[in-house]
Amino acid sequence: MSRLVYILNGPNLNLLGKRQPQIYGYETLADVEADCRKLAGELKLDIRFHQSNREYEIIDWVHEARESAGAIVINPAAFTHTSVAILDALNTFDGPVIEVHISNVHKRESFRHHSYVSLRADGVIAGLGTQGYQLALRRVAQLLEEKKG
Ligand code: CA2
């Protein structure tokens, strides 16, 4: 099983740390990527870290992951609540999928309470801030170990 993990981020997450810190905190997406790279090194995982404001790019990365990756960590951002297309793409991926939300979506507007991606995700992390990405990576490392047997 490949130890490559795709970490995918949806629309507006490029603004992380620059707006609405009361909801999303002060870390930028570059900080999150650096933290993930450091932890991935410790866990002996390789990562591809991407962000896009375009749904089709996220779908294309999921297709790429099908060819080479062992797991996907995804914060689909607003596409969480709207995208059957991302759900369909994730359903073609065989390895573990962990869904991450920085904020506690269940404490927010009701339209954030439903996630299409959760219909595929093996685990969901919400409301733990940007630390959620690292917790997701730790879980993925464990699941990949278990699969190795
Ligand atoms: O809590 C999360 O991680 C979300 O996925 C973030 C999405 C939101 O639509 C989801 O309901 C929950 C929004 C991402 C926007 O990111 C920003 C970051 C900083 C400033 C403005 C937007």
TrEMBL record:
Annotated metabolic or biological route of this protein: Metabolic intermediate biosynthesis; chorismate biosynthesis; chorismate from D-erythrose 4-phosphate and phosphoenolpyruvate: step 3/7
Residue(s) at site: Transition state stabilizer: 19
InterPro entries (UniProt xref): DHquinase_II (IPR001874), DHquinase_II_CS (IPR018509), DHquinase_II_sf (IPR036441)
EC number: 4.2.1.10
Any GO MF annotation of the entry: 3-dehydroquinate dehydratase activity
Residues the record lists as binding substrate: 75, 81, 88, 102-103, 112
Keyword vocabulary terms for this entry: Amino-acid biosynthesis, Aromatic amino acid biosynthesis, Lyase
Reactions accelerated catalytically: 3-dehydroquinate = 3-dehydroshikimate + H2O
Signal sequence region: none
Catalytic-site annotation from UniProt: 24 (proton acceptor), 101 (proton donor)
GO biological process terms, semicolon-separated: amino acid biosynthetic process; aromatic amino acid family biosynthetic process; chorismate biosynthetic process; quinate catabolic process
UniProt family annotation: Belongs to the type-II 3-dehydroquinase family.
PANTHER family the UniProt entry points to: CATABOLIC 3-DEHYDROQUINASE (PTHR21272:SF3)
Task performed by this protein: Catalyzes a trans-dehydration via an enolate intermediate.
Quaternary structure note: Homododecamer.
Protein name: 3-dehydroquinate dehydratase
UniProt gene name: aroQ
